[in-house]
Amino acid sequence: MDLQLQGKSVVVMASSKGLGKAIALEYAKEGARVFISSRNEEALKQAQTEIKKESENPNVECMVCDVTRPKQIEQLIESAVKNHGNIDVLINNAGGPPAGVFDDLSDEDWQRAFELNLLSFTRTIRAVLPSMRKQESGRIVNIASSSIKQSLDNLILSNTFRAGIVGLAKSLSQELAGDNILINTVGPGRIATDRVASLDEKRAGQLGISIEALKKQSEQSIPMGRYGEPEEFAKAVVFLASGANTYLTGQSLVIDGGLVKAL
Fold first, then answer.
1. Most buried by CB count within 10 Å: which residue of 16, 100, 114, 224?
2. Domain co-membership, 49 together with 150
3. For residue 117, what are the CA distances in angstroms to 6, 52, 98, 109, 181?
């Protein structure tokens, strides 16, 4: 299948590691011109070097961007448009909010999670729309969580704001379809990333068991019997935000090895 990504301009947010980096690498392998970003400049530069080497694609640029800072989002998108002439694909991504139950969390915790996991997506979409509307074409994928289908224990902030992302994308799918801009939401299940490892470590401590024992329990709950790999997740995202996807918009998809039982 031709994903029609050769030479296309792709911006991947929060992409110095984990799912964001894996997605950026898959786009680079497809011959796209990729713009990656992160708050951590050292990690970002390292990711840029590794993606270029593994993909054999020199067209990988990077810029520091904290997605909770509106001005930095504007500067990132302006740079991508200036360097590439346009933006064909936006992958919205951000680190997860802290774990916790309702009584653990303050107004400040809620506000930070809102800024990080919902408002940042809104701001980034707003920034890329002029370029996409001008060319009457675009693909946007919002990276969320499996909580968009089934709530997760001890993750009330994620459960709340990831659901907001789904509502945002569904509404925008109606508003943007006339400009041939397709937008979808993808939620990872238990994918082997630093974020999942951190949550596993915290949960294991709460239960008083080893991380290895907790991981074994988790794997037993997944029909495929293992955690997913970042590149497996990335391949699905790249299809959705490519020229090969011409009619699928406003949908929310979970990539989880069959873990979520909700319809």
1. 16
2. yes
3. 30, 28, 11, 12, 22
Total count of domains within the chain: 2
List of E strands, the chain? 9-12, 33-38, 60-64, 89-92, 138-143, 181-188, 252-255
**pTM of this prediction exceeds 0.70:** yes
CA-nearest of 152, 182, 185, 181 to 168 is 185
Between the CA atoms of 246, 30, 88 and 237, what dihedral angle is there, to the nearest 10 degrees? 60
How far apart CA 172 and CA 14 sit, in angstroms, is 22
Q: Per residue in 156-208, pLDDT tens?
A: 999 999 999 999 999 999 999 999 999 999 999 999 998 888 888 888 888 89
Q: What is the CATH number for 82?
A: 3.40.50.720
Place of tokens 């509307």: 133
Going by DSSP bridges, is the β-strand pair 89-92/252-255 parallel, antiparallel, or unpaired? unpaired
Q: Say what percent of the chain tops pLDDT 70.
A: 100
> 217: domain range?
192-227
Backbone angles phi, psi at 93, to 5 degrees: -155, 150
Instruction: Report if residue 261 sits inside a domain.
Output: no
Whether residue 87 sits in one domain with residue 61: yes
Task: Give yes or no: residues 223 and 150 share one domain.
Answer: no
* 75 within a domain of the structure (yes/no): yes
Distances (CA, A) of 105 to 98, 110, 145, 152, 214: 9, 7, 20, 16, 25
Q: Which residue has the tokens 């809620």?
A: 110
Q: Which two tokens stand for residue 256?
A: 């989880």
